[in-house]
């Protein structure tokens, strides 16, 4: 993915994106939480994740905080998730 950024913007980039791909932007408070999509680690917040069309489970977790999970149906376009993580009782 890093190699694509060096190319000048043009028609080449559009071919890499699936027509039904959905971009999910995940931001959390506090930042630096792990993002899992369908049980697979995809990065840390804040991040933008591309998923294929269909049903997905997004989980955001961080040590010392309750895990946050949401099921979503991706159908193209952009989805923004703002996640407020609750601290676990000590």
Plain-language structure description:
With 90 residues, the chain is mainly beta. 12% of the residues lie in helices and 50% in strands. The protein is built from 2 helices and 7 strands, in the order H-H-E-E-E-E-E-E-E. The strands form 2 sheets. A 4-stranded antiparallel beta sheet has the order 3-2-5-6, with no helix packed on it.
Overview in brief:
The chain has 90 residues and is mainly beta.
Q: Give the helices and strands as they follow along the chain.
A: HHEEEEEEE
Strand content: over 45%
Count of helical regions: 2
Report mean pLDDT, rounded to a whole number.
86
What is the gyration radius calculated from CA atoms? 15 Å
Enumerate the spans where pLDDT stays under 50 for 5 or more consecutive residues. 10-15
Shape: elongated
How many beta strands in the DSSP annotation?
7
Largest sheet strand order: 3-2-5-6
The residue fraction in helices comes out at 10-25%
The structural class is: mainly beta
The largest pleated sheet is described as: 4 strands, antiparallel
The N- to C-terminal Cα distance equals 40 Å
């Amino acid at each position: 993915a890093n190699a694509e950024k060096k190319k000048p913007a043009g028609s080449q980039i559009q071919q890499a994106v699936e027509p039904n791909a959905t971009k999910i932007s995940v931001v959390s408070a506090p930042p630096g939480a792990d993002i899992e999509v369908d049980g697979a680690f995809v990065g840390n917040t804040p991040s933008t994740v591309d998923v294929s069309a269909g049903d997905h489970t997004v989980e955001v977790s961080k040590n010392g905080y309750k895990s946050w999970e949401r099921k979503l149906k991706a159908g193209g376009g952009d989805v923004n998730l703002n996640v407020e993580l609750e601290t676990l009782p000590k």
